[in-house]
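Q: Can someone sanity-check these two? First one:
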Amino acid sequence: MRFAALSALWLAATAWAAVERSDDGNVRSIQLRTHTLKQPYLDSDMASRWYDFGGDTIVRTDSYIRLASERPSQNGWLFSRVPLTATNWEIEVEFKISGKNSLFGDGFAMWLTKDRGEAGPVFGHKNNFEGLGIFVDTYKNNRPGTVFPYVMAMVGDGKTTYNKDNDGKDQELAGCSARGLRNSKTPTKLRLTYFQDKSLKLELMYKTEDEWQLCFETNEPPTIPSVTYLGFSSETGELSDNHDIISIEAKNLYTTGGSSSKQPTTSGRGNSFKPAQGQSGGSWTWFIFKVILFFLVIGGGYVGYTAYRTNQKRTHRF
């Protein structure tokens, strides 16, 4: 009985953990398998079910997806096959920028855009894009007073051109310096969290494992196109580095009622942002999950009780 009951409780807890997010009591998450990518990356047909890649991208199924290698004039990309349609989401990416050269460049970009897999001059992707770009820039062109590597967000309207000459300073939404990100001895990650009309937050991990640094947060997030593709790209010029994607974990976020409050934060540019407010309202999805979990526990108890009664009968028989 004890074993069966514990098994039922473990199953319920596992199902619960699949949708729970602990850092905010009102926020739950469900993994988006269509936009999650982990080793070995490829299936038996040597292709990814949910992602396409092209250009100079190299896939090592036991290690990484290398968008650009430590060689001049490299250009590679990785893009989801289906659009990201979730209203609120969180995307966590483990990546690695490394190399042996004392002079290096240029960096890589994360994209949430209407266009996918189109090579170009903006970290390996097309210019005049429509959507959101997160740039991890390792080479300083002309931006006095800024420490590199520099991580910034840019919102594209399909007409605005990214100015590489000044590292996108005029097109920047928000950003921060990240000294020590390249060749870090600890895992390097970024986590982008978006609540429609509520907040956009970017966190980085590169100093200490499991310790996140706030890059920026704003309660006036950009409007992201309703149909966008998640992608990554990188390029090298005369200077080069290895730019690797290790894993991608995407989640659909939703709230279960109440509100959250956070202290005002400051971006890497010195701009102050107001705290993001949590959403309110129930969730039918969460209600359905709780009902399923309830019946799992009841079913487990019944199985345990049946096993116990059977065991008792056998014991008395002898």
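And here is the second, same format, sequence then tokens:
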Amino acid sequence: MSAGSLAKHAGDSSAQQGRPAKGLSRRQREAFAAYLFLLPDVLGLTIFLAVPMLFSLGLGFFESDGFGNFAFAGLGNYTQMFSDEQFLASLRTTLLYVFVLTPLLFIVSLALALLVRQKIPLIGVLRSMLFMPYVISLVVVGFVWRFMLTDQVGIVNQLLQFLHLPTPSWLGDPNVALWTVILVNVWFGMGYYMIIFVAGLQDIPREYYEAAEIDGAGGWNAFWNVTWPLLKPTSFFVLLVSIVSSVSGAQGFDLIYVMTKGGPAQSTSLGIFYIYQQAFQFGHYGYAAAMASFLVGILLIATLIMFALTKGGRFESD
């Protein structure tokens, strides 16, 4: 090859290197990588959540005994639930459970978050102790509390007897059992929501508190005018998650199954527990699927209302 040909070949190579390479741009490659990272979660949610939900929604229009026998029922299961007194009673119990547990859990968790933010001795140990119940299995928690609250021989009633105080039947009195489950649930979940509130408090710039202190604002005024407005997104998240967990049974089903079995006199039978009984004790899978779909619909409506009223934690005054 001559010297002129070599020079021309080198010039053509330089020109090709100077041109942008054909293929995906940097932004497209980053998007592709992001989708690859999301793919396992999307597949897991699709297989283990979306598909069962769609199957449950369809199953609600059939009568099934769980052994492959299906009979089309149309809207029969949905009309039956509105005349089922036990199901309606379980919905009322669920509403009471949610409207008591959610604000109580919210207040206790926020108070603990404000407490553990203080500079006091052994605060790290206290924070760990408050969070520790949440890492224990709910089944174990239920068994331990059932043992502690047993009539006469339980440590709680023995302590009350020692103090000459009344000893109620914590799990045997229909007027007390639901409140007992609520209190145990607060004890179990307060550490988790406390950590969420602590994270929200840490995101508030210190300069706001310094400005409030210069203006002469006390502890309550600083909380009401600085902490509370800037904590609204975190508060919205806590409220939403606690409501969904309460209705769906993530925070109550295990405790009720272990501690009370829905009793006494169905006083602790939440909607999700009654659905479980219809499906896995009585074999009414179609009817249970219809009730579960109805419960999911209520949750979706409640979530949409919360988003509409608060704009995801950003209120009109923000």
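A (reply): Looked at the second one. Residues 6-11, 13-21 have pLDDT under 50 and may be disordered. The domain at 87-310 is CATH 1.10.3720.10 (MetI-like fold).
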